[in-house]
Amino acid sequence: MQEKTLSSSQVNKYGFYLLTSSLAAMVQMTYLTIFMTDMIGIPAAIVATTLLIARFIDLIIGILCGGIIEKVHLPWGKYRSWLLLLRWVIVFSLVCSFFDTSAWPLAFRVGVSFIGYILLNACMSFTTNAYYALGPALAGANLNDRNRLSARGAQFMCVAMLITSAATIPLVTFLTPYTGPANAYLAVAVVFALPYILGCQMVSDLCRECDPSGKRGEQGAGVSTVTLKDMIQSVVQNKQLLILFLSYTIYYIGLYTISGLGTYYFTYIVGNYMNMSYSMTVTMITGFLSSLIMPKLGGKLGKKRSFVLALIIYAAAYACVYFIGGNWILFTLMGAIGGGAVYMFTGFGVNYFVDCGEYHLYKTGKDTRMIAIAMYSVPMKIGMMLGGAVATYGLAMIGYHAGITVTPEFQTDFMILLAVIPAVLVLIGALIMQFGYKITDEDAAMYAAENAKRAKGE
């Protein structure tokens, strides 16, 4: 059931959205914590608590948004409408996130940062899940096209991370004498967010004809009969989705623990913040090259083996980080090895969760694929919440405060936080996937083909 074949232009336009969305999100994702502690003077423990609460709320929204998207039908299409409406809120959210409130009372500083974080991530939950739902609608049952869309999206995301890695710190440094450090972050964040408006419009135009309206029509999609009970059961009773969800979640906790500590590593352990820009740029260049090569290896290994092998390599690389101390060149090398390996499976992207949705539809006759797709972003949100908590509470526990003088004891404790804990977590995620996940690529192709036939009444 491989009748539809997308053109390169369609694949590129669809993937371009992830370049713009990653540009919009990366500055907040990478620099918000140190902005809150070192730019506007919020103590680390309060930052940890604020972001933990915000990320918990965002997690609840992320869990519910798939069902909301499935049930609510807006005028410009079931999925496209969310992209067209919320892109403006996302740009505004970055103004809140990096607004200089340093002269205001502590409660106000915390509140503005909290609002900025919630607005960006909650809106991204809706737009990203709507975007991922458009992928299968655009590709149909052609799994090769689905994989092409995911792989190209991963490559565009890598380009976005390369741009932000290479440009953010130099731009902030350049603007600081003219605007002050806090306003420099704000200016850079807004500039990177503006292309997102175009990205949403482009994918909306591309998918205008394939976005289901919720009524029976050319796409063969009937009005949804999925109830709230079905939504819950589609997750709880889908053991393969639960295994995948758990593996991804543990991996992301490790990943965001590392991400949350990166700026502190270069500021305090390395002692040169600018080196972070060099390191991230090198890592993103090698990541981009990996995004061109590794998906081909992943295609030969298959989804499961790619996931497991990549996580083992990632865990081993960061276990080595513990021993390198402030040697940022070796740190960059380990990051490049681990980050390059994950492109073996990130090229498949949301298709892991689409496979679980197709599996559930094939087994039960209930179409909860949108719910399965929505679960793709939830492990990342849990990872941001718990990984960020490990990082920021961990900093508070080992005695961190802005401007701290690094002692050997502090450095040892910091490297355990940065390297050992994430490596162990990622390895656990690999083991869960290895022994629990059973859907083969052949099974996934069969489920998609059979479900497509049923939709057409064959």
What is the topological layout?
Blueprint lengths: L7 H32 L4 H28 L8 H18 L8 H34 L3 H37 L1 H13 L1 H12 L21 H9 L2 H32 L3 H28 L1 H19 L6 H14 L1 H4 L4 H14 L4 H6 L3 H20 L10 H29 L4 H15 L3
Helix pairs in contact: 1-4, 1-5, 1-6, 1-7, 1-9, 2-4, 2-16, 3-4, 3-6, 3-7, 4-5, 5-6, 5-10, 9-16, 9-17, 10-11, 10-12, 11-12, 11-17, 14-18
Textual characterization of the structure:
This protein has 458 residues and is an all-alpha fold. It is built from 18 helices and no strands. The two termini are 12 Å apart. Keywords: Membrane, Transmembrane, Transmembrane helix.
Provide keyphrases for this structure.
458 residues, mainly alpha, 0% strand
Count of DSSP helices? Answer: 18
In what range is the share of β-strand residues?
under 5%
Rg calculated over all Cα atoms: 22 Å
Q: Major sheet: size, sense and barrel closure? A: none
Low-pLDDT residue spans: 214-225
| Structural class designation | mainly alpha
Instruction: Give the proportion of residues in helices.
Output: over 70%
Give the terminus-to-terminus CA distance.
Answer: 12 Å
Mean pLDDT: 87
Order of helices and strands: HHHHHHHHHHHHHHHHHH
Query: What's the β-strand tally?
Result: 0
In one word, what is the shape?
globular
